[in-house]
Every structure is written in C-alpha cells, then in structure tokens.
Write the structure tokens for this entry.
Amino acid sequence: MQNEALKIVAVSAGLSQPSSTRLLADRLAAAARERLAAEQDRPVEVQVIELRDLAVDIANHLVTGFPPRALSEAIGAVTAADGLIAVSPVFTASYSGLFKSFFDLIDNTALTGKPVLIAATGGTGRHSLVLEHAMRPLFGYLRATVVPTSVYAASEDWGSSGDEYTEGLPSRIRRAGGELAGMIAGGRAVSGASRARGLDDEVVPFEQQLADLRLD
C-alpha cells in the first residue's frame, strides 16, 4: 500500500536505566525519521528494543531453543523492519555479550539486504575501532547492507559540537541517519542542501539529560 508506514527498529544493548546507549539509539532513530519524513509522504514508525529487558529470555532461548513471546516479537520486529539501528556499549574492546547473543538468535539470512546503521558507546575514544573491527563484520556475515557512516560516542562527545577539524556528535548522527533514510527510501541520494533545520544546526544541551546517566 502506498501509505503503509516505513518501520525503523533500533536495538539498544545498554544495561543501565537510563543509558547513553539508549540515548544514542533514540537520536539516531530521530535523525533517520526526520530525513524520511522530509523526503517522502509515507508515515514512519520507530520501535526501540531494549535488550536488557530480554536478557533472561535470550539466555533461556540459547539453552532451550524456544523463544518466549516477548523475545519472539522482538526478533520478528528486527527481521521485518525497513531499516535497523544497532547500538552496543563497548565491553573488552568489542560489542557486549548481550548484543552478540541476541543477534546469534537471528537466522543468518533474515537480514539479507536490510539497511543497518551501527553505533557504539564507550568511556574513551580509543575504543571507536570496535565499529569497524567487530560490528561491521558481524552484520556483513548476516548479509545486511551497513550504511557507510557509523557512529561512536565517547563520554567527551556528549554536548560537544566538534571543531574545524572534526565533526561533532550531532553532525555525525544526522549524517548517519540521513544515509539510513536514503537506503530505506530506495537508495535515492539524500542531499543536505535543501534540508530543514536539523540536529546539528545547534549544540543540544545534553548536560541536563546526562546528569544521572551512566555510560554503559
């Protein structure tokens, strides 16, 4: 149907509540939805899956081979999405075990050709290579189409606008979200020239949101 909603699913593997991982997932989803809404006339639905809420179900499924209802619905949402956002905290220089365990449950052909935006959070920028050394190969194995721009957010990135040599986090979020939107919409080029005022036109004051936030 012409007006059938486009579906974006964001998977967050953050462990705390609230978490910087969930915050990054939300902002990436908002950027993709904003661009899609500006570029086409179909409604856009966003669903965020918190893996922390499914941790026991994931463990049980790995042991028994039978997914409980909530986990089955989450897997179904991921495989049926028009676009996927996958965000993990960095643990021991890689994605978290919870993140890997969830995607281990998805058939290795179920994401074939699906647009995927990968992102990660951590306490220091030294772990940013996890995106290219761990997450991108994982989704390559799952035959997904990973957008060119991946987003890593270290603790110092929140609230930073960047400088003349580097892009700030809001700019990277908008660019990655735009790339995902372009793939979802059918591979059309998404130009920033005619866009409405967006996420990186001003620095968003994260300090209030992050006052009680623990990086995980």
User: Anything to note?
Assistant: The CA atoms of residues 98 and 145 lie 22 Å apart. Confidence is low (pLDDT under 50) at residues 187-215. The first helix runs from residue 20 to 39.
